[in-house]
Design a protein that fits this description.
Layout lengths: L9 E4 L4 E4 L5 E4 L6 E2 L10 E5 L4 E5 L6 E3 L2 E3 L1 E4 L4 E4 L7 E6 L25 E4 L5 E4 L6 E2 L10 E5 L5 E5 L6 E3 L2 E3 L1 E4 L4 E4 L2 E6 L2 E6 L6 E10 L4 E11 L4 E5 L6 H9 L6 E6 L2 E2 L4 H4 L3 E4 L11 H12 L6 H14 L15 H13 L5 E5 L7 H16 L3 E5 L11 E6 L3 E6 L8
Parallel strand pairs: 3-4, 13-14, 25-30, 25-31, 28-29, 29-30
Antiparallel strand pairs: 1-2, 1-11, 3-5, 5-6, 6-9, 7-8, 7-10, 10-11, 12-22, 13-15, 15-16, 16-19, 17-18, 17-20, 20-21, 21-22, 23-24, 23-26, 26-27, 31-32
């Protein structure tokens, strides 16, 4: 039987920018600021239309919008689209329009501005660009390196990028605490070719043409979950049933559902602790499972049970965690400054010198979160953080998570509590058997 052919990658252009559409997921168009393609026009419905990859092509489907979707001046319900298609929303003559184009070949002068091989589908501009070195360049946290990375998870002398006599390059790890990665895999010494990604701490370096481009993960990352499936009992019991959804930057997503709906299985699949049997998790366009060794350092997980030493004070507990997580060459003052920073961020100043066992449940949860924030993760997962807390504490913890997302992180919380879902951007409701029952804004869930 012939395999269905894959829809081509397309570029969708609006008045305000462009989006690369990759097959494997749908793209939602609407006035909702969390749509994939946001059209800020009163004639456009909140959820207006959806672009779907079908067998070898794309279709657009109107989602029963008030003012309609138009192609060739005619109102359409479902329509095949491809390079050259022009669609208008809300009005056939002057409604906001999108134009679809074929995916361009990378421009020779700066291919990465279109896409980096391992950053599929992300339009990321490099943080810094410098000419390719003609000699050995030392990379690290100390100020006397040729390339200084101000990041506490980077060792003072971390790695060297060597220009070899034949014009090629190699990367060598200098015995760093947290490792050097090439295309997501740890290396000691390895050749670096054009387009390869060297990962050091929160930075990624890429050789493009005659440039060395640096991309810094500042925390504002998206997560794209595509078709995750998990089964046990030799496939007889389904725990996750082809789950797909996008999570935008600075988004707070709550995952709810009854026992046995697959919430913990989904959490394990999203954090990479137990990858799904089928499907892909894209961390800002990078395959999380393929590049897990590198990307796991950018993911924080707060388990349901607090992993804190109850006899230590808050400051002591965080200081010991910092010693374990930061390189041994980190100065005491640097560690102390980072510990003080997370204590302030989570409002624990008044409790810093209290033993952990004397704290309330909500305060202990804040300390658990502080522990994970030490290394500045971009993605933060929490498993039942409000379990056993009274309604006031429940609300306080959820508002704390809202603040963490607003500060530039993506936060995903698995919860049984429905008291504070209004502070979340997105709600994912799982039904028994690991099916998605609802995904969207919390305020629309009951009507749905």
């Amino acid at each position: 039987m012939a395999q269905p052919s894959v829809a081509p990658e397309l570029v969708l252009e609006t008045e305000t920018g462009s989006t690369v559409m990759i097959p494997g997921r749908d793209y939602h168009v609407g006035r909702d600021p969390r749509s994939d393609i946001v059209l800020d026009d009163d004639r456009v419905s909140w959820h207006h239309a959806v672009l779907k990859p079908e067998d070898g092509h794309w279709t657009i489907e109107d989602e029963n919008s008030t003012n309609g979707t138009y192609a060739d001046g005619r109102r359409i319900h479902e329509w095949d689209v491809g390079p050259g298609s022009v669609i208008r929303f809300g009005n056939p003559s002057d409604g906001p329009r999108v134009v679809l184009l074929g995916r361009p070949a990378p421009a020779p002068e700066r291919p990465s501005a279109v896409s980096m091989p391992a950053l599929t589908g992300t339009y990321r501009q490099p943080t810094t660009v410098r000419p390719l070195p003609t000699r050995t360049v030392r990379i690290g946290r100390a100020g006397d390196n040729d390339l200084v990375i101000d990041d506490l998870v980077v060792s003072r002398r971390h790695a060297e990028l060597r220009a070899l006599p034949d014009g090629t390059y190699e990367i060598t790890d200098l015995g760093s605490h947290n490792g050097t990665y090439l295309n997501g895999r740890p290396v000691t010494t390895a050749p670096v070719a054009q387009g390869d990604i060297v990962g050091i701490g929160h930075s990624a370096f890429c050789l493009v043409g005659d440039e060395l481009q640096e991309y810094v993960d500042t925390g504002e990352v998206s997560l794209d979950v595509q078709d995750l499936a998990v089964a046990v009992d030799r496939g007889r019991k389904t725990l996750l049933d082809h789950v797909s959804f996008p999570v935008g930057e600075k988004c707070l997503l709550a995952v709810v559902g009854p026992s046995g709906a697959g919430k913990s299985t989904l959490l394990n699949a999203l954090t990479g602790q137990r990858p799904a049997d089928h499907g892909t998790v894209l961390y800002d366009g990078r395959d999380l499972y393929r590049d897990y060794a590198e990307l796991r350092q950018r993911i924080g997980l707060v388990p349901q049970d607090d992993i804190l030493h109850a006899q230590l004070t808050v400051r002591k507990a965080l200081s010991y965690a910092a010693e374990l997580r930061f390189p041994q060459d980190t100065a005491k003052a640097e560690r102390r400054a980072r510990v003080d920073e997370v204590i302030r961020e989570l409002g624990l100043e008044q409790r810093a010198n209290q033993p952990v066992h004397s704290l309330s449940g909500g305060q202990r949860k804040r300390v658990s979160v502080a522990l994970e924030l030490l290394t500045k993760p971009s993605l933060l997962f929490l498993d039942e953080p409000t379990s056993g807390l009274d309604p006031g504490m429940d609300r306080s913890v959820m508002h704390m998570l809202r603040g963490l997302a607003d500060d530039g992180r993506t936060v995903i919380v698995v919860t049984h509590s429905v008291l504070s879902l209004d502070v979340c951007d997105r709600l994912l409701v799982l039904a028994p058997g690991g099916k998605i029952a609802y995904y969207g804004p919390p305020e629309d869930a009951l009507a749905f």
